[in-house]
Write a structure and sequence with these properties.
45% of the residues lie in helices and 14% in strands. The chain is α+β, with helices and mostly antiparallel strands. The strands form five sheets. It has a seven-stranded mixed sheet with strand order 8-9-10-7-6-13-14. Strands 1-5-4-3-2 form a five-stranded mixed sheet, with helices on one face. It has a two-stranded antiparallel ribbon with strand order 11-12. Strand 4 and strand 5 form a beta hairpin. The chain is elongated and about 95 Å long.
Length: 587
């Protein structure tokens, strides 16, 4: 008999769509019942085994009761090593035997967490209890040479307190995997300083100095066992909780970037943030420290990992809920026009809509890079018409400021997103043309003088061709973003949310326009070379050097080429000569 679950059920850590595919397990308790589920979709996008615990919660004051559901994640009892991992660890243990070292080697952090969750991980960090990483790497190299093997890629990454890297790291390559080596340590932070005093520590001290309990687990290579020295790392994995080993406010003030890491891991695994952690993350002291003590590069790296991850919307929503949105995506003091009070909500609404559209259209339609930049383009969509003054006093898009100053990300990302934003108005203008069976005159958009001599019947292909040649491989991304502001620019959070995104209509519009562009034969049109080159243009115009006139004719000839897809170079050149003669006579 299937259990009846009423609307009073509270689902944590994330919303569950409870289907009738629940099977009651045996339980002697009447207040706690456990159900296993066969078709549960985790946020990571993979089906994972687990079970749902239903607890009956009674309210004495109201005389009522309800059920509370808690998801428990399946965590492995022991770590199963791959063949490569066995070979790596064997080499390290043989190094200890070769030199008769009384050293304990532990794998720390994310590798342990991921292996316990049944996930592959190739990021191996070795913590050493009685020597520096560089000293141990030298001994591994010496041992490998004695066996006829060659040590690869040995290097030392120096400490860099300015980038919050407080410890020297040794690195080497074993069996095509990079392995990092550091010593176990404890940290002491002095008042007003973000640079800790480092010293050798015990494994327990090292575990408690880490950011989260789920990242504080060790795998002891000597004993082949998992060590949970905080006493709650494995339990927090099972219950899906993001908790700090020490009081969260002190942990965040030591390194405020840990706030963003907590959000990222919570989103990535579908875990919930501890309530005390959320209070600490949102307090003024921590937000101020995040803005003042952490480099923009490190913040930008965390944000990019979230955007590139499996739950970008959840991550950005959490950043906003913790009042960190404007700390992370800081704007210059003066922008024009002024940003509305609820602008960050609209940013996340657009991000949510684009994420859902990508899933419904099909992730395979977009490359990984296209998906990543489409989410940035959606997140910053409300800023597309906002400008500020750059360091030279020139007017510049505020989107460029966010990428280059607030996040310190590469210029190419900023340029691509801004190019997508600039293309939106032209895409909106094309929608009616591409979706209508009737001859429709293009709206008043500055398409350029190259369309003057193009016959009306060919203007659609020419317009779309120029647009695609501008945005190139990102034309589908620009099309996707354009569907979210069609038929009119929606800059009100309420307007956009009231429409509940209308995803079905936007998908239909996307596919209609995509099919129309494909039928026009414009796929990869940006790779098509001009039929007539600059020297030939200069010859017809009887010019000795290039200039604005040559560039103008290059655009006109490209328009002719788009209007005549089967035309030859000779025909294109003849058209240019005739057109040039006609204009010369008129002038």
């Amino acid at each position: 008999m299937r259990p009846y679950l009423n609307s009073a059920i509270k689902i944590e850590p994330f919303r569950l769509l409870l289907s009738p595919i629940l099977r009651r397990s045996s339980s002697s308790s009447s207040s706690i019942r456990t159900f296993t589920f066969r078709n549960f979709q985790f946020p990571t996008g993979t089906r994972a085994p687990g079970h749902l615990i239903l607890r009956r919660c009674r309210c004495r004051a109201m005389g009522t009761s309800s059920l509370e559901a808690v998801v428990r994640f399946q965590v492995k009892d022991k770590i199963e090593l791959t063949e490569i991992e066995k070979k790596i660890f064997d080499r390290l243990l043989n190094t200890l035997l070769h030199f008769n070292l009384q050293t304990e080697l532990r794998v720390a952090g994310g590798w342990v967490r991921d292996k316990l969750l049944g996930k592959d991980c190739y990021d191996i960090d070795i913590a050493i209890d009685n020597m520096l990483g560089s000293e141990f790497v030298d001994k591994v190299r010496e041992y490998l040479l004695s066996t006829g093997e060659e040590a690869q890629g040995l290097c030392i990454i120096p400490r860099n307190p300015d980038q919050s890297k407080h410890l020297e790291t040794a690195r080497m390559r074993l069996f095509d995997l990079w392995i990092d080596f550091v010593n176990l340590r404890s940290e002491d932070y002095s008042d007003g300083s973000r640079i800790p005093t480092m010293k050798f520590g015990t494994a327990k001290e090292d575990a408690f100095r880490r950011d989260l309990t789920i990242n504080s687990l060790f795998y002891n290579i000597n004993t082949s066992s998992v060590e949970d020295l905080t006493g709650r790392g494995i339990e927090d994995l099972k219950t899906g909780k993001i908790v700090t080993p020490l009081p969260p406010k002190a942990t965040f003030l030591d390194d405020p970037l840990r706030v963003l890491r907590a959000i990222r891991f919570g989103a990535r695994f579908g875990f919930i943030l501890d309530e005390e952690l959320k209070v600490a993350a949102a307090c003024d002291d921590v937000t101020s420290a995040l803005a003042a003590k952490v480099s923009k590069e490190r913040i930008g790296t965390e944000i990019d990992l979230m955007i590139s991850g499996n739950q970008p919307v959840k991550a950005m929503t959490c950043i906003a809920d913790l009042t960190l949105f404007w700390v992370v995506f800081g704007l210059p003091p003066k922008v024009e026009p002024a940003v509305s009070e609820g602008c960050h909500k609209l940013c996340i609404a657009y991000l949510d809509a684009s994420w859902n559209l990508i899933q419904l259209i099909g992730c395979s339609v977009f490359t990984v890079e296209q998906r990543r930049l489409s989410l940035y383009a959606a997140l910053f969509l409300p800023f597309r018409n906002i400008t500020c003054k750059d360091e030279k006093g020139k007017t510049a898009p505020v989107v460029n400021f966010i990428f280059k100053d607030s996040l310190k990300q590469k210029s190419s990302d900023s340029e691509t997103v801004m190019k997508i934003h600039r293309s939106l108005e032209k895409f909106l203008n094309l929608f009616d043309l591409l979706t209508s069976n009737e001859d429709t005159q293009p709206a008043e958009v500055d398409w350029g003088p190259e369309l003057i001599d193009v016959p009306f019947s060919s203007k659609l292909r020419v317009l779309a061709g120029f647009l695609l040649r501008d945005v190139k491989d990102f034309w589908r991304v620009a099309l996707l973003i354009s569907t979210m502001i069609y038929p009119a620019n929606i800059d009100s959070t309420e307007d956009f949310l009231d429409k509940q995104y209308q995803l079905d209509k936007r998908i239909e519009l996307f596919k209609t326009v995509e099919n129309a562009i494909t039928k026009l034969g414009l796929e990869k049109i940006w790779d098509v070379k001009p039929l007539v080159n600059g020297k030939e243009i200069m010859s017809v115009l009887q010019l000795k050097s290039g200039g604005p006139l040559v560039r103008e004719w290059q655009q006109k000839l490209l328009a002719w080429q788009l209007a005549h897809p089967t035309g030859t170079a000779e025909e294109c050149l003849d058209w240019m000569k005739q057109t040039h003669l006609k204009r010369a006579r008129i002038q």
